[in-house]
Amino acid sequence: MPIAAIEALIEVLGQSQVATVAETIDLVETQSAKLQCAVTNSIALSHGTHLFRQYLVMSLKQPGPEGKETSTQKNFDIVRQHLLRNGRLFAQRAKNARERIAVNGRRHIHDGETILTYGGSRVVGTLLGRAAEKHDFGHFVDDPIRFKVIYAIDPALETESNKVIAALRAKGVPVATIPATAVSYAMSKVDMVIVGADAVTANGGIIARLGTFQIAQLAKENKKQFVVAAEQHKFGKTFPCGQFDYGFDQGVIDFRAGSTSTSYNKIPKETLAKPIDYTKPDYVNMFIADHKVLTPSEVAKEVIDMLL
User: Fold this and answer.
1) How far is 180 from 186, CA to CA, in rounded Å?
2) Name one GO biological process term (predicted).
3) What is the domain extent for residue 258?
């Protein structure tokens, strides 16, 4: 969703007739607000739009053809075209982030280890898939890593999970599937937990699929590494105070009385937001991002630098 938001803003800029820096910034802010209002859970989307706005502001502050800042009307048309070209390159680099995460992360997976994952993350799927391949880095050949995967299945993300599982098994990786309710049972067999994230919060925590926080708690209790694979464009200023501080009602807890059904409340299929939860940075050992590997405190510092 962050990439889709960035591409939408680039498309708007390409179709617009804005003629000044102020109009450009105003257009991006207005369209970002419209995008965020169009979805129930706009956290990840807002991280993408904010990152693009920061990129936009920095680009517009660069010296123009005559050595002056690009806020002058004379330079603006040139800058606008340059901005659109670089904006598309910016979006393409964001799309390629999964592959860079795979390169950064495969060295943290070792022969003989068992990895537990959950949530249908394509980033984690790419990382594990590349770890199972032979790599030629020019001056040396890196052999495939021999490891096993325990995949905890979320029924709401079964389709995404099955794609990752099939791809891993096709590469010779032994994969065991378990229900999310069996994670505690399986944890003693695990060396490391790797999950993805919808968004990375300002304090180095994560917002991810509902159930991730429970797995993080179990990993910490069992002294297992809890690793998050997440692209830098998911870093943002969101700072939830708890599980009910997202700005929208997930409808997970639905009190009822009388002769109604006793089964748990199911999220309507037509909703645009899958249920999420918040994992504090205390439970995260390491982030594998597209630019480098970081601790939660290093992530928090990067977000602060982004906001300045």
Assistant:
1) 10
2) positive regulation of cellular response to amino acid starvation
3) 98-307
